[in-house]
Structure formats: structure tokens, C-alpha cells
Fold this protein.
Amino acid sequence: MSGPLLVPDHAVSRAVVRTVPDAVTERLADLGNIPVAVPVLALAMAYAAWRGRRPAALAAGLAMALVPALIVPLKAWTARPGPLEPWAAGYYPSGHTATALMAYVGAALLVAPYTRRRWPLALALGLSVATAAGLVLRGFHWPLDVLASVLLCVPLLLGVRRAAGRGSARSR
């Protein structure tokens, strides 16, 4: 693999990996695990559906279902090795980052119209950033792996936002 972004990517990784205790960074990285993140989205989807916003709930569920459809083929195609496991492949893009972002931000977009505050989105972004930081600091992913996942999720989240904006409490 080569490219102009790989040199700074490797430099940043070398500078930050293991600068925080593994016990902390592993917990942060775990926020992107499917059994942790997806139930948060499922609860928000159930709440939105219960409140009569089934299209928004379905859009969030569909967006989450599209995450592996986007991430897995890219991992196989790029076969990028990991920062601490150069013999392993499939680190680009980060599935944990994409899962966290879709679950937490998707959930926030579903519940935010009922709170009339910005804290759900701030919390969701905080959890997503914590996940990404944990993955990079622990050495599970390169910084570009995380960035690629964020960029892949933005269009999906915009679709959820659009669906969640229809019929929301604010637009009534």
C-alpha cells in the first residue's frame, strides 16, 4: 500500500498508540461492539415507532444494516494490515467506528425531536469520538481507518436525519 496520506497516518499512529492505558482504550473501543451499540439504536427505534415515527425508525435500521454491506467488501478489497498486527488484514475501514457512529448518532436523531435539546446528539458524538479514539490509541486501527468510516457513514446519517426530520415534534 502506498499513498501520500499513509506517511502521516503511520506517524500519528506511532505517536499515540499505547499512550493511554490499555484498560481504558479497550473499554472505549468496546463502545463500537455490536452488542453494545446496536441495542441503543434498537431502543431508540422502538421509541420512535411507538411515538408514531415508523419511517424514521425504519430509515435508521436500514442505515445500520447497510454498514456491514459497505464496510466488509472494502475490508476485503483493501486488505490493509493493522498497526500492531502487520500479518493480519482487513482493518480499513473501521467497522467499530461505523457501528458506533450509526448506532449512537442514529439513536440521537430519533430521540432528539422529543427532548427539544441538543444533548442527545452531543452525547452520541461524544460516544462515537470516544470509540474512535480508543481504537486508535489502543492500536486496533490506523487513524485513516477511522476517518474512512466516518466519511462512509455521513451519507447514511444524512438519510436518517432527513427521515427523522419528517413529522418531528419541531416541524409540527
Remarks:
- The first helix runs from residue 6 to 16.
